[in-house]
Amino acid sequence: MASSSRPVQSVTNAELYNRWAKVYDTDGNILQSVDDLMLPALLDHVFALLPSDLPIRVIELGCGTGRNTAKLLSPKFSSPQISSIAALDLSPGMLTVAKERCENYLTANASGALLAPPVVEFYEFDALNQEPSPEIKALEGKADLVFSTLVLEHLPIDVFFRAITSFLKPTGGYVLLTNMHAEMGRISQAGFVDEVTGEKIRGHSYAHEISEVIEEGRKWGFEVVGEVGERGIQQADVGTVVGERGKKWIGVNVWYGFVMRFEEVRQSERAGQ
Ligand SMILES: C[S@@+](CC[C@H](N)C(=O)[O-])C[C@H]1O[C@@H](n2cnc3c(N)ncnc32)[C@H](O)[C@@H]1O
Fold first, then answer.
1. Dihedral (C-alpha) 125, 126, 131, 134: value to the nearest 10 degrees?
2. Rounded-to-integer distance, Cα 13 and Cα 90, Å
């Protein structure tokens, strides 16, 4: 892999994303492009599993700039299936962008196909904090679906499943997760180039193997439903799926994503262990 002589600054994840927020949607990050390509099939999959005749409550863990929150607002998913979306993130800077993006989307579509738009609310939330605020506590046990894209790499796997389990209805539900592939995570970490200082700004990331995520999920009562998707970068992707920055990743798996079902019975079994 090509190494860069650029100076690197390591910061907390909160600082990373507060600083990245301004350019997160425009700096040509290849993982977001691959996620954009792969996510629609996973969304179709999980919405086919969810009941079509009941209002669906979604909690998004790590919504970032609302890149994918806005996809949930498309009439295909939100009207009539989704009744509410609680979008949570560590970074106030990312949440500000997400809020504006979703408000703009809902305003632009106010008289269109979204006759009953979902209620969208934004909350600051740190999954590493074991004592959530009263606002976050009020969300516990309410979700039919937890949606989390490109966030797991920043958390120990058990912390990720603890948060998801706390948000899902105790009677069951689903998680749709996507993540940086461990093949990419072993070589690189989430970060961006600060155009003012020229530095590469990095936070803290883990390289989680798919097998480790599935295994930890089982302990919390989750089973994979459907395919586990993996995506690498191929020569033909450069200039189509990803920009020039994708060249150095040719031949490397960069993304995975899948849906897991949470079942009450499994949770009880776990509790009885
Ligand atoms: C790579 S971004 C992904 C954002 C968005 N889901 C997307 O797909 O574009 C990772 C997000 O996770 C959030 N995050 C990192 N650590 C977190 C934590 N401990 N608790 C909650 N959110 C966290 C970051 O603030 C950031 O917005």
1. 0
2. 8
Instruction: Please tell me the distance between residue 41's alpha carbon and the centre of ligand 1 in angstroms.
Output: 22
Minimum-distance ligand 1 atom for the alpha carbon of 89: 22
39 lines ligand 1 (CB under 6 A): no
Backbone angles phi, psi at 133, to 5 degrees: -65, 165
CA 125 to chain centre: 14
Tens digit of each residue's pLDDT (9 = 90 or more) over 89-135 = 999 999 999 999 999 999 888 776 666 789 999 999 999 998 999 99
Question: Rounded mean pLDDT of 48-76?
Answer: 94
Fold of 8-272: Rossmann fold (3.40.50)
> Ligand 1 pocket, 67 CB below 6 A?
yes
CA distance 231 to 252: 9
Atom of ligand 1 nearest to the CA of 129: 19
Residue 179 near residue 213 (C-beta atoms within 8 A): yes
Burial state string for 18-28 with b = 16 or more CB within 10 A and e = fewer than 16: bbbbeebeeee
Q: Map out the domains of the chain as residue ranges.
A: 8-272
